[in-house]
Here is the input.
Amino acid sequence: MTLEQTPPSGRASRFESTSDMTWRHPVIRLFCLFLILDISLWTSPLLAEISLEGEIVQGGIVFGQANPGSQVFLDDQELLISPEGRFVIGFDRDETGQRELLVLAPDQSEEMIELDVSPREYDIERVDGLPPSTVKPDPEAAQRIRDEAAMVSAARSRRDVRADYASGFAWPASGRISGVYGSQRILNGEPGRPHYGLDIAAPTGSPVYAPADGVVTLAHPGMYFSGGTLIIDHGQGLSSSFLHLSKILVESGATVKQGDLIAEIGSSGRASGPHLDWRMNWLNRRVNPQLLVEELPQP
Here is the structure.
């Protein structure tokens, strides 16, 4: 025997429970749904999550994404992180071994990632025709060189949580690649320091554009080694430097967007011909800008 009966239209069965009738009320059902969602948000932990993009290699740059509000540590050093959870890591030219990346989520859960830095082989480049005074500076130039080095260091010391680099990177100029990052240089026949930039050969006056968003921290018309020098900070200690410029079109403190015209190529300072020397730093590490861009467009 069954107790189920079909009630007349618009009327509940006398065998239907009061709880069933209450649950079917649209307002009550909506309230319960919000209550369930609210409880789930409070009881579900915000676990440590992390994604990394880039090459873990000598000279490499890696962009990270963690949960907003997380803390990120590289070995024992706490990294700057944007409100959206973005952070950046760089590896020096000669860096070797293993680094430990620790992400501490807002709920104190954590994730540890071991980063093995892969080695690279570097070219040997010979550069001839440089002014002898720029290869072996006179003692009188030593103080000027020290002063200018201090200016560059100060310009690269800016630290804040901006993640202007998140706009991505584009080539700052078009031309022929005439020098690559990390190469051992022979200057006028004498062994020199490694080259930390990416050289783009082009005629004097060729345009230079901002490769990514940022803030100008140095605009100097004529340094001893680097000539016309411009530095743009992209946030969290990541910066771009542009050397040997013939003209600088922005001032220190200016905010630039990717693609803005910022300078013109030249051969000022220690240079054997007109070209752009594009360098990048993360904190005190010199990194390779070529890893961030596609194939170089030709003029």
